[in-house]
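Incident log entry.

Two folding requests arrived from the same account within the same minute. Monitoring flagged them as a possible duplicate submission, but the sequences differ. Recording both here for audit purposes.

Request one:
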Amino acid sequence: MTGTLSPNDVIGGRYKIEHYLAEGGMQFVYVASDNVTGRVVALKTPKNRSAEKRFHRSAVVAAKVNHPNVAKTLDYINANGQQFLIEELIVGKDLKAALLEDSLFLDPYLAAKVFHHVAKGVAAAHHAGVVHRDLKPTNIMVVGDYSLLELKVTDFGIAKMAEDELLEAVEGGDASLTTSQTAVGALPYMAPEAIDTPRDVGAPADIWSIGAMMYHLLTGEYPFGQGLRAVPKIVAAQKPSVPAFLTANPQFSPLATELINLAFICMTKDSKQRPTADELVSMCSELCYSSASRYRGKIGDFVFGAYGHISSSAGRVFFHKECVYGEFPQIGEDVLFAKYDGGGSPRALPVVKLRIAPK
């Protein structure tokens, strides 16, 4: 499906449709050019009557938040009985597509960077009195692939509309939870109170969702699983297990331990015991992590069971076995790495095995 608009349509006498981009549970998204400023923007319009009723309110809510880690709301138009939300166009991928398709999990340095920036975006929203309610990897946009040049939380307004659909899904029982596209995507990151008392969900539910996402990014697993089987586990809020690889390498263990403990603090069942977004930002600021760019490469050789080289567009890079995080890659397999000056060949740290060949 490509929505109801066509290229060259002009909305509100100002926004010229360039092409269809994507769709979510609530909206169609187009790329448009602003004839006044020349800026290229994202233009969103509701998919159905249910969404239309809440679209203006959602635009007003989203416009309250202004922060580098939040997608900016630029305009709202009601033209010929149809509503349109104009947002900053983010040329990138959502967090799931960008970071969880080629790798099962993130190394602790990269996960810490994601954690910190998501927390800052959510804190800015909470300062403006705005609760997201539908935080999940597909509502976070990433620019720059694994180098994370930019990270922005999106759809604060649309999430307000999603709240009503989530309410209907939770209160409608098991069948609704499995047929609602919004509920299926949100469930693995949903706080217990969003299931138990869905009409009484506030800012602490966003904190839980951040913790659940971070557990997923760190371990490659959903903290409580997916689908209906996850529901009783989420409500019970029993601490999920920690995979052994997180702390198996002493070089990564301290940061990985700090991160998983932060994720668990966020997923405290008693919402009053969870940190605020500001407190979470403060805790993340104490983490020692690198923001180095990431590169994709291939294991070229491995010598004496201790070290080898990676071939990549960045050149030939040396690595030691202790610099590998997670499963050890074999010769010819694809890896993700950061590199540093080694006095000879650049040196890779960390090295993480990828699931597929570099694109």
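Request two (distinct sequence, not a duplicate):
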Amino acid sequence: MGKGGETAERRKQDMVLAAGCVLWRRARDGDGGPEICLVHRPKYDDWSHPKGKLKRAEDTLTGALREVLEETGHHCAPGAPLGKVRYLAQGRPKEVSYWAAEATVGAFAPNDEVDSIVWLSPSEARDRLTQPRDRLLVDALLNALHTA
């Protein structure tokens, strides 16, 4: 390692680990296709999939399900893993692990982190998502549902 260089271990220690779900339900009208839940975070004024930082020693799936419940008020049944998304957040590397998750029971109540949610068709969800990287997760969900 050269002077001023970082080791892989140091970069790993600096990484923020998070988890979330592409939360979906069967449409209540129309063809019964999937509707995807997006959350609006007023702090960032963005639309995204429910996600959040992991607690110490929390495994990724447990954290993803906890975040869905905290942000949307919905319990869910986890499905296929949809992969990991990596990006810089406030200058630090962040890795978010995602799962497909079908909403079961629950009701949304606005909170400090999320002030509203919407249920949208996949094409409407793609259009509403703020970050292009989150649009790829819609495609991953649809692929997982077609192969299930």
